[in-house]
Design a protein that fits this description.
This protein has about 220 residues and is of the alpha/beta class. It has 3 helices and 10 strands. The longest helix has about 45 residues.
C-alpha cells in the first residue's frame, strides 16, 4: 500500500511539473511573438523598439543618427552598441529588463544620466561626463529586476597605448632564440672541448719531436 501511495505521489508531482513546464513554454512563446511583432512594427518608426527574450542579442547602430529607442530584455544577454552612432541631440533609452545582463556602449563625446528603478539589480555607469558646451546627453530611464546593467565607453576594454606597449615588449627573435640557445651552447661547448683535446695532443707530439732534435 505504501508503494502504491508513493507511486501516486510521483505521478502527481510529475504531472504538475509537466503542466508547469507547458505553462512556462506557452508564456515564453506568447511573449516572444509579442516582442517580435513590436520590433517589426517599429522598423519605420522614429523610435525603434529592440526586444530580447531568452537569447543573446546585439543591436548595432552604425554611421546614422540615433534618436532614442525602447529596450526590453527578459532572461537574455543584450548589447546595445552605439559606439559608431551619430548624436545630434539629447536622446532617451527607455529601458526594461528582467533576469538579464545588459550592456550599453556609447561613443566619446556624450554624457550619460541613469535613472533606473532597481530591484535586486546592479547598475554600473563607467562613462565620465564632461562639462563642455555642446555635449549631448543619453538618458537611460526604466526598470531593472534581477539585472546587471553596464554602461561603458566604446574604448573601455581596448586601450591602444596598452596594445602598442605589448607590441614593443614582444621580441620574437629573442623568444625563439632563448628556446634554441641551450642546445646551441651545448653543441658549441662540446666542439670547443674536442678541439682543445686535439690541440693538446698535437702540442705534446710537437714538444716530443723538438726534444729528440735537441738530443
Amino acid at each position: 500500500m505504501a508503494k502504491k501511495n508513493g507511486f501516486l505521489k510521483f505521478v502527481a508531482v510529475t504531472g504538475a511539473l509537466v503542466a508547469a513546464s507547458k505553462v512556462a513554454y506557452d508564456k515564453y512563446k506568447e511573449t516572444k511573438e509579442k516582442f517580435v511583432k513590436e520590433e517589426n512594427d517599429s522598423v519605420d518608426a522614429e523610435i525603434r523598439k529592440y526586444n530580447a527574450i531568452a537569447e543573446k542579442k546585439i543591436v548595432e547602430i552604425e554611421d546614422e543618427e540615433f534618436v532614442g529607442c525602447e529596450l526590453k530584455s527578459v532572461a537574455a544577454k543584450t548589447t546595445l552598441d552605439l559606439g559608431l552612432a551619430v548624436f545630434e541631440k539629447d536622446v532617451y533609452v527607455n529601458f526594461s529588463s528582467v533576469c538579464s545582463n545588459v550592456t550599453i556602449i556609447l561613443p566619446e563625446g556624450v554624457n550619460v544620466v541613469c535613472d533606473v528603478d532597481r530591484i535586486c539589480s546592479g547598475v554600473r555607469n563607467l562613462v565620465e561626463n564632461s562639462d563642455e558646451d555642446g555635449i549631448h546627453t543619453v538618458y537611460i530611464i526604466g526598470k531593472a529586476v534581477a539585472t546587471s546593467l553596464e554602461v561603458i565607453p566604446v574604448d573601455f576594454y581596448v586601450d591602444d597605448d596598452d596594445v602598442e606597449d605589448l607590441d614593443d615588449d614582444f621580441d620574437e627573435d629573442a623568444i625563439f632564440a632563448n628556446e634554441d640557445e641551450p642546445e646551441i651552447k651545448v653543441i658549441n661547448k662540446s666542439v670547443e672541448t674536442e678541439s682543445s683535446d686535439e690541440d693538446k695532443e698535437d702540442k705534446e707530439e710537437t714538444e716530443e719531436v723538438n726534444l729528440e732534435e735537441v738530443e
